[in-house]
Design a protein that fits this description.
six-stranded mixed sheet; Rossmann fold; globular; 10 helices
Length: 249
């Protein structure tokens, strides 16, 4: 089993709030890992820790280690880390520029200037995000004219354009209709052949359908972490069993 990210005794504090408490978790390469739990339990804090987005929060203190391919992420410059560990947020946030420029802007920042190379990256990224057929004839149109589901797939294409190794997704379908949600789930299933995916979701059915491993977080603690089939069919912790059964959360 190839471990892509190793989380070791991770604690996160926001001022006096102890948001994550001694998290230990190994995230397997080229698999989808889902994080579930009630609102406010620490799921988003955990996923934002994986590419140091919490570093930007005033009053945030972090202890413990997160290793990427065996190396501590604290030793990687933030912009280089976020190239390797990309992020897709809950609400689609395309830039108010063309579809093409949304995808090409990241590679440009990292030094790619060739028009031919950028064309190839844009097409490949949009294809990988299952958006090429819908967007190829309007690449120069403003991205905000896309539907919500298309905008979210564009944001995925934008993240993929810089060739990350890990893709973090923080509730990527919570603002989408069922049809768009199904497209994103299909996309996630295809992406794991090339990327390691970590997804936060409130949708238990989505976690069961789309992930290989699932972690249940409650009050900042990782209560249970195992293969998804185990979590949903034979959870060992009563709190996990009750949450999956809908008794709270």
């Amino acid at each position: 089993m190839d471990i892509k990210l190793s989380i070791q005794d991770l604690n996160v504090y926001y001022g006096d709030l102890h948001a994550l408490k001694g998290i230990n978790m190994d995230i397997t390469a080229n698999k989808v890992t889902a994080l579930i739990g009630p609102s406010g339990c620490g799921k988003s804090t955990l996923i934002r820790s994986l590419n140091r987005l919490n570093d930007t929060v005033d009053g945030c203190k972090i202890t413990g280690e997160i290793l990427l391919d065996g190396g501590c992420i604290r030793g990687i410059e933030a912009h280089l880390l976020r190239k390797r560990v990309g992020m897709v947020f809950q609400k689609p946030n395309p830039l108010p520029i063309s579809i093409y420029e949304n995808v090409a802007s990241g590679p440009r920042v990292h030094g790619i200037r060739s028009a031919a190379a950028l064309d190839e990256i844009v097409e490949r990224s949009l294809r990988n995000a299952h958006l090429w057929d819908e967007a190829k004839d309007r690449l120069r149109k403003n991205a905000t004219r896309l539907s919500g589901g298309q905008q979210q797939r564009l944001c995925i294409a934008r993240a993929l354009a810089v060739e990350p190794e890990v893709l973090l997704m923080d509730e990527p379908t919570s603002a989408l209709d069922p049809k768009s949600t199904a497209k994103i789930e299909e996309l996630v299933a295809n992406l794991k052949s090339q990327y390691t995916v970590v997804i936060v979701t409130h949708n238990l059915q989505q976690a069961a359908r789309a992930s290989d491993y699932t972690g249940f977080i409650l009050d900042g603690e990782l209560v249970e972490f195992s293969k998804t089939e185990q979590i949903f069919s034979r959870p060992t912790d009563r709190r996990c069993k009750d949450y999956i059964a809908g008794r709270f959360g």
